[in-house]
Amino acid sequence: MVDVVVVGAGPNGLMLACELALAGVRPLVLERLTGPTSEQRANGIVGQVVRLLDRRGLYSRLAGRVGPPQPTPGYVFGAFPLVLAGVRDNPLYLLPVPQRRLEQVLAERAAELGIEVRRGQEVTGLSQDADAVHVTLASGETVSACWLVGADGGHSAVRKLAGIEFPG
């Protein structure tokens, strides 16, 4: 039995797995896709997560330059320009990076931390008893863990299998 099963090897699932490993928890990441997607999704990161990536030593890998991130002097939000140059303790940081690259760097970090990432593993069922959660895969294999995290996107199989509604 593993400590935590994380379903989804996108940015959220991989980052969570890395954070768990740094805390001494051994996660197992399951991903439905057999490889990274070639589909262009997000094209950058905005906000305090940029500073978090820097604290974890990942900012330079993603930004392609040495040094800490700097707050952005301005930003356009909803077609309205935001002038932030004079804002004390400006909290807005930007990191233009394609999601494919972010996932690549996080997967490399997960490998460095010894995290097992199993691709081509579709979750088709789950159950829970007093001791564990049991995740059934399309192959028929069952993986048991103390905890299960669904980081498998807006159409989350984990959420649906758990009976959690998502109106809208």
Main sheet makeup: 6 strands, mixed
Helix content: 25-40%
Write the element-wise H/E pattern from the N-terminal end onward. EHEEHHEEEHEEEEH
β content, as a range?
25-35%
Strand order of the largest sheet: 7-2-1-10-9-8
* Total strands: 10
Please state the average pLDDT score. 94
Number of helices: 5
Query: Kindly, what is the distance between the CA atoms of the first and last residues, rounded to a whole number of angstroms?
Result: 35 Å
Describe the structure.
With 168 residues, the protein is of the alpha/beta class. The protein has five helices and ten strands. It has helices at residues 11-22, 49-55, 59-63, 99-112, 157-161, and strands at residues 2-7, 27-31, 45-46, 74-77, 80-83, 94-95, 116-119, 123-128, 133-137, 142-150. The strands form three sheets. It has a six-stranded mixed sheet with strand order 7-2-1-10-9-8. Helix 1 (11-22) runs parallel beside helix 4. The protein is elongated. The model has no long low-confidence stretch (mean pLDDT 94).
Could you give the topology of this structure?
Blueprint: E1 2-7, H1 11-22, E2 27-31, E3 45-46, H2 49-55, H3 59-63, E4 74-77, E5 80-83, E6 94-95, H4 99-112, E7 116-119, E8 123-128, E9 133-137, E10 142-150, H5 157-161
Parallel strand pairs: 1-2, 1-10, 2-7
Antiparallel strand pairs: 3-6, 4-5, 8-9, 9-10
Features:
168 residues; 10 strands; alpha/beta; 5 helices
Compose a concise summary of this entry.
The protein is built from five helices and ten strands. The chain is an alpha/beta fold and 168 residues long.
